[in-house]
Design a protein that fits this description.
alpha+beta; Alpha-Beta Plaits; 45% helix; UPF0045_domain; MTH1187/YkoF-like
Length: 98
């Protein structure tokens, strides 16, 4: 499964990068395949391990902010591995073909 999620503190002002970095650090330390872009962090693995990482990432932000916003989207597909890479490669292949 691939989960794309965004976690942000609420009520701490406009600059939230330091808080978001705390969440991304949890994801990167998990050892699961992951990518972070301007809007979301995506992580790939089995349901329980991915959801545990998301929960810990939220907790890392919550430890410094009393209120947290979480947006989560999941692609649950049995038997697919390396979806973070293969899905993008498929789109790039079609783009290259014209």
């Amino acid at each position: 499964m691939i989960v794309a999620f965004s976690v942000s503190p609420l009520g701490v002002g406009e600059d939230v990068g330091e808080y978001v970095a705390d969440a991304v650090r949890v994801v990167r330390d998990s050892g699961l395949p992951n990518r972070t872009d301007a809007m979301f962090t995506s992580i790939e693995g089995e349901w329980d391990e991915v959801m545990d990482v998301v929960k810990r990432a939220v907790a890392a932000v919550e430890a410094r902010a009393g209120r947290v916003s979480l947006v989560l989207k999941a692609d649950i597909r049995e038997g697919v591995t390396d979806g973070l890479t293969s899905k993008v490669e498929t789109v790039e292949r079609y783009l290259a073909e014209g």
